[in-house]
């Protein structure tokens, strides 16, 4: 082999490597450009997005800390099952979302064509609600603090600000939020604060009124039954979807950043019901017991 032939072959190898590198870069740049290509459709589009992981982590911290504070989790075993369900939440939501889109003829054609359907069929926010909403009867057993807090919210957020100016109305709303939270915490946990007077002496029935054990147990079985639980949680989600997105709340500074956006009722019901069903199936798998009817 002459030196000239060697250089020609070496140049051809360099040219081949350069062409392959350019082709690979072009392929990946096309495949991962926004909303084009199968990988982009899955990872950054209608089926799944990395932002879901951020929501999952932040929402989990807020939801579980709130649930423990209000008493929606009664035992360590119950907390463990809910944590297990929350760990499985993202892959389950992903599979359900993929299945729904791929079962829809038009959506399936769009996805296989490398683009995202312009449709919002499920919401992770409402899907995750079923994990903790099924424990609300435990929190509501001490009904007095809830009654006091929501009375403060009703008056301070929806009634009293109406005749006031916008500036004074916002001040009244912020005061009502702080007062409602303080009232709830004092009525529920004030007995442990020896420096403060006993809540029942100050608040009366707000601190003492409670549901009976029988009523609480029946409500808990009702919400955690496969036949009624998903429907009840779905209806509760629709109620929250309309209340939390009212202008009286969304106009409050800072608070509107923490509120959900209003979704179609069909999305809320479907997401909350499917999420509740998923949680109840996790409970069945973990405990070996299933409750069909209360």
UniProtKB/TrEMBL annotation:
Keywords: Membrane, Transmembrane, Transmembrane helix. The chain crosses the membrane at residues 38-59, 79-100, 121-140, 146-164, 171-189, 226-245, 266-286. The keyword Membrane applies. This is Uncharacterized protein.
């Amino acid at each position: 082999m002459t030196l000239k032939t060697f250089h020609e072959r070496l140049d051809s190898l360099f040219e081949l490597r350069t062409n392959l590198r350019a082709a690979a870069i072009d392929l990946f740049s096309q495949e991962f450009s926004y909303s084009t290509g199968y990988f982009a459709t899955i990872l950054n589009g209608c089926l799944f997005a990395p932002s879901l992981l951020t929501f999952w982590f932040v929402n989990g911290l807020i939801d579980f800390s709130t649930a423990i504070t209000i008493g929606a989790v009664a035992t360590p075993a119950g907390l463990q099952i809910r944590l297990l369900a929350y760990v499985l939440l993202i892959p389950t939501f992903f599979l359900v979302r993929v299945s729904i889109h791929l079962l829809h003829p038009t959506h399936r054609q769009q996805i296989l064509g490398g683009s995202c359907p312009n449709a919002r069929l499920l919401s992770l926010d409402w899907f995750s609600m079923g994990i903790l909403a099924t424990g609300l009867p435990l929190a509501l057993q001490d009904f007095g603090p809830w009654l006091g807090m929501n009375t403060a919210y009703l008056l301070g957020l929806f009634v009293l600000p109406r005749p006031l100016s916008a500036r004074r109305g916002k001040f009244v709303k912020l005061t009502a939020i702080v007062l409602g939270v303080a009232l709830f915490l004092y009525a529920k946990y004030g007995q442990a604060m020896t420096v403060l007077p006993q809540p029942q002496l100050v608040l009366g029935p707000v601190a003492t009124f409670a549901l009976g054990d029988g009523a609480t147990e029946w409500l808990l079985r009702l919400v955690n039954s496969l036949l009624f639980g998903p429907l009840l949680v779905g209806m509760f989600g629709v109620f929250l979807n309309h209340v939390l997105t009212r202008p009286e709340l969304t106009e409050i500074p800072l608070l509107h950043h923490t509120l959900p956006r209003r979704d179609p009722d069909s999305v809320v019901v479907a997401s909350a019901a499917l999420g509740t069903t998923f949680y109840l199936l996790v409970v069945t798998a973990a405990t070996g017991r299933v409750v069909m009817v209360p």
